[in-house]
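Contributing: when you submit paired examples, paste them exactly as shown. First protein:
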Amino acid sequence: MADEGLRPIIIKRVKKPGGGHHGGAWKIAYADFVTAMMAFFLLMWLLGSTTKGNLQGIADYFSTPLKVAMAGGSGSGDATSVIKGGGKDMTRIDGQQKKGEDLTPARNYSLKAAEEELARAEAKRLQVLKDKIEEAIATIPSLQQYQKQLLIDITSEGLRIQIVDEKNRPMFALASAELQPYTKVILHEIAKILNDVPNKVSLSGHTDATPYSSGEKSYSNWELSADRANASRRELVAGGMAETKVLRVVGLSSAVLFDAKNPYNPVNRRISIIVMNKKTEESITKENTEANVADGIEAKQAVDEAVNVSGVVQPGTSQPEQAPQVPLVPATH
């Protein structure tokens, strides 16, 4: 009993970790939860803002991504797709390359449609010019008294302005190409308006069927009509029209009558100013070009035919190697 009283008493103290519910382990779990929720809401937003076709592309991509990437399809290479990449450029170095079906309607460009559109635009421009000339005739005092002598219409060649004679008011002196003072006034006013359009101009002179007094063999209605057309051209240029606008000046005598039933009617004596459309202008320039080319070819053939098979040059011809080369280009006159 004595020994038991001397045995030492050992007290074990267990230290519990401090902090308890104030520890930080819960923060990690909460951060994981927030991250998962953000990913969930982001996924729901993407699914809600994606079209049905792209959703199918996404589903195909996740089921067999390599197949979709190589074969293409809606969503595989489209820059608007949620899943980027696909097509020929897997790395997207050269940008998105859509290999799927292109739903954009193809545009067909027709030369005929373009020409028709240009023709409509030109017809509209000539109509505006016609209205402007008619307004000028109605408002300008110097032209109002000549309304009956100014005839304006649109033909297949373009806008035609005809200045016709009246019984007591001729445009030119009798049997002459000298313009009357009031005819110059008319031409000056028209010249100011013609510069508003880029179209070329053609002038033609006409007479009635009354034969010229000196007869056909010297000076006839053909020469008279041509001189009157050229006199009108000079007056238009003097009135302010650009000289380069004139493409053709012709005299038609009484071949094209205004009043075919009465060849001697004074109205047949007239000047026609045609503001040509593009088709008429091209037909004139093309005809001139083809004529010069044909002349050049015929001249070259004549030189070739002058040389016989043995190489001997016929009298009056030059040596083949020295034969002048005929330029096959349009004349500048």
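Second protein:
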Amino acid sequence: MDQIVQQIAAYRQEIESLEIGSPQQLEEYRIKFLGTKGIVKALFGEMRNVPNEQKKAFGQVLNEFKQFAEAKYEGAKEVADNGPQAADDIDLSLPGDPLVAGSRHPINLVRKRIIDIFHRLGFAVADGPEVEDDWHNFTALNLPEHHPARDMQDTFYISQNPDWLLRTHTSNVQTREMEKGQLPIRIICPGRVYRNETISARAHCFFHQVEGLYIDEHVSFADLKQTLYFFVQELFGKDVKVRFRPSYFPFTEPSAEMDISCLICGGKGCRVCKHSGWVEILGCGMVHPRVLENCGIDANKYTGYAFGMGIERITMLQYGINDLRLFSENDLRFLKQFTGAV
């Protein structure tokens, strides 16, 4: 009997060390220990060889071992039943989890509208580098080194001697297109630009622009005004009020700024329009002859006009947004308002 008890203790240690991780291992365990020809059944068969005075004690040891083996089996079976479903058990007819549809950023929505309007007027889209050299960003545009007008655009410089910088406007695309010498030119240049400005409800250190350029023979300021009148009415509606004010830009002469009546306050005055009722949306003018000459174009034969606008300001007017900083804060509460606009 002592030998059998020692064998039962060995079986108990074996069961304790077993890790049953699959239905196949569970079935192998059941057959080995609990099957009709298993170890538990065989141990109960040894009862006939035990002396009568020891049968009670031996029976108690056998019952405890049987309960221990069955508990191990039931525990492993419960884990298997509650575990991951087999691939064959997956119901592929169940509907999937819904996917939340995204939307375009409001800046991109307005950018596309602006491009579509100018496409109808025959303007093509041109693109250029955001990291630019001094010549294409400043000097070719009648802004030589130490020119006081450079103070209008506080700049992020990447390196000096030679000067490389983050472009302060998309006019660098215009100079590159003019240098190609393929006339006439009728392009718009959308893109991101950078200036070292104080961040506020009206300004940021980076923003988006759309600039336009048209160069051909006999281009006049009247052509410029008619183009911009058409653009504003297509974007904001026929009832929007427009005014031109004389201004100064080193790369155009004569130059002007164009204002429209503030659509946020209806002309009554707010912080976006500085309580004037008017919002300046773009600068424009006739391309300076020196700019044409710098880019290899005969200023005696060709004339042209140029204009530039900030997309953020247009978007603020379009959707009644009073703080430019909202566009770059990645706040879903703000961005989800444009879900329906695709």
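If you have annotations for the second protein, write them as plain sentences, like these:
The chain has two domains: 2-85, 106-338.
The chain has a mean pLDDT of 88.
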